[in-house]
Design brief:
The protein has 178 residues and is α+β, with helices and mostly antiparallel strands. It is 37% helix and 22% strand.
């Protein structure tokens, strides 16, 4: 073990406790690490870091019937929903840019605590400037809909990446980036 560590081993597998699946995973991770080092040396993006490229038309749920109206934006698809409201893929009317539009649920607009939390989220996110955080463009009110307009990232979600299958090494690298 000491000799292996000195030779540059990233991890050790003890023969008394390792099973076939663990051995296969360790070899796959070692091969992925070698490929990542080669890619880094050549300046290419390693495969475990590549984002899944999805067309915006395939993301989310098509809007059936009436959708919320927000002046200056055209709703294209619903891409998420949570306890505070919904997120839509929207097109900004004046320039055609696609962005994510987060709308506070109308029922929560009248709740001072939720409304304050929504405004605080905007203020905090607007202060951040990092490649790993979606840019915030605007905040406003459209009838009963307080909204935050933010950068739409078509690369998908971390949850989707995990469902597609991710090696422990790739997970560690993504976590380090986050």
């Amino acid at each position: 073990a000491r000799d292996a560590s000195r030779a540059g081993a990233a991890d050790l597998l003890h023969s008394a406790t390792v099973g076939a699946a663990q051995l296969v995973r360790a070899v796959e991770d070692a091969l992925a690490e070698r490929e990542a080092r080669r890619a880094q040396a050549s300046g290419a993006e390693p495969p475990w870091l590549r984002r899944t490229r999805w067309e915006p038309a395939r993301i989310g749920v098509p809007l059936a019937g009436a959708s919320p109206e927000v002046s200056g934006y055209r709703m294209l698809r619903k891409i998420g929903e949570g306890g505070m409201g919904a997120v839509y893929l929207a097109e900004r009317v004046h320039d055609g840019a696609q962005l994510a539009l987060k709308l506070l649920a109308p029922a929560l607009r009248d709740d001072p605590a939720f409304f304050a939390r929504f405004v605080r989220e905007y203020k905090l996110l607007a202060q951040l400037a990092d490649e790993h955080v979606a840019r915030i463009y605007d905040q406003g009110f459209a009838g009963p809909h307080p909204y935050i307009a933010m950068e739409f990232l078509a690369g998908g979600t971390l949850a989707a990446r995990i469902r597609e299958g991710i090696t422990p090494l790739a997970a560690l690298r993504l976590a380090a980036g986050i």
